């Protein structure tokens, strides 16, 4: 039997609207259909990959999604100086088949899936987020999740490149809030909520 070895992994980078973050995209699934945010090193326990990425002195946060990792750097670091070493690290790590996420160590949070307890308005909000907002935000290396709806206010949590992005409030207010108000008249405001 002929053994072909491990899959060759390629990593390319994409800029995000947040100048402090960079999206590292792999030709391999890292966390299929899911995403997880590690806002600092102390949160990285469930991810051996995130733990090792925090060993780079310039990494401030790690966000892992289906086929990409979004990294936030320290302000005094120039991406041009560090991209080659991060790309090489990710390539070797993934080619070795090392663990990305230890699912059994993740503290389960309430998911934004539609449940039987949801009101009609909440169902429409979640569907709008899932079908229109999430794909666009993921293209920019981030994620958005539904936290709640009360008295006309939709509460969302921003992660990955969206967290701390200078343009995230414009996206939230002009983009997401504007669309929700047009499509769901019960929505009066959309706000970002911390974890």
Question: Can you walk through the features of this model?
Answer:
The structure is a single chain. The protein is an alpha+beta fold and 195 residues long. The chain has helices at residues 48-53, 79-95, 120-139, 168-183; strands spanning 11-15, 21-26, 36-38, 59-64, 68-73, 142-150, 153-160, 189-192. 31% of the residues are buried. The mean pLDDT is 84.
SSE order: EEEHEEHHEEHE
Q: What is the spatial order of strands in the main beta sheet?
A: 1-2-5-4-3
Provide the helix percentage.
25-40%
Radius of gyration from CA coordinates: 18 Å
Residue stretches low in confidence (pLDDT < 50, at least 5 long) are none
Distance between the termini: 51 Å
Label the overall shape.
Answer: globular
Features:
30% helix; globular; 195 residues; 3-stranded mixed β-sheet; 8 strands; single chain
Secondary-structure blueprint:
Blueprint: E1 11-15, E2 21-26, E3 36-38, H1 48-53, E4 59-64, E5 68-73, H2 79-95, H3 120-139, E6 142-150, E7 153-160, H4 168-183, E8 189-192
Parallel strand pairs: 7-8
Antiparallel strand pairs: 1-2, 2-5, 3-4, 4-5, 6-7
């Amino acid at each position: 039997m002929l053994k072909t070895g491990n899959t060759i992994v390629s990593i390319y980078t994409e800029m995000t609207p947040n100048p402090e973050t960079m999206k590292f995209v792999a030709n391999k699934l890292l966390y299929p259909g899911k995403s997880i945010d590690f806002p600092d090193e102390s949160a990285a326990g469930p991810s051996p990959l995130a733990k090792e990425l925090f060993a780079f002195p310039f990494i401030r946060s790690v966000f892992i999604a289906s086929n990409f990792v979004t990294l936030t750097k320290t302000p005094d670091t120039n991406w041009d100086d560090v991209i080659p070493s991060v790309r090489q690290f990710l390539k070797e790590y993934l080619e070795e088949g090392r663990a990305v996420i230890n699912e059994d160590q993740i503290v389960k949070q309430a998911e934004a899936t539609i449940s039987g307890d949801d009101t009609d308005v909440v169902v429409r909000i979640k569907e709008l987020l899932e079908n229109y907002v999430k794909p666009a935000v993921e293209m920019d290396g981030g994620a958005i999740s539904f936290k709640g709806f009360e008295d006309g206010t939709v509460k969302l949590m921003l992660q990955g490149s969206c967290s701390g992005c200078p343009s995230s409030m414009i996206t939230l207010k002009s983009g997401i809030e504007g669309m929700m108000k047009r499509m769901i008249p019960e929505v009066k405001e959309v706000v970002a909520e911390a974890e």
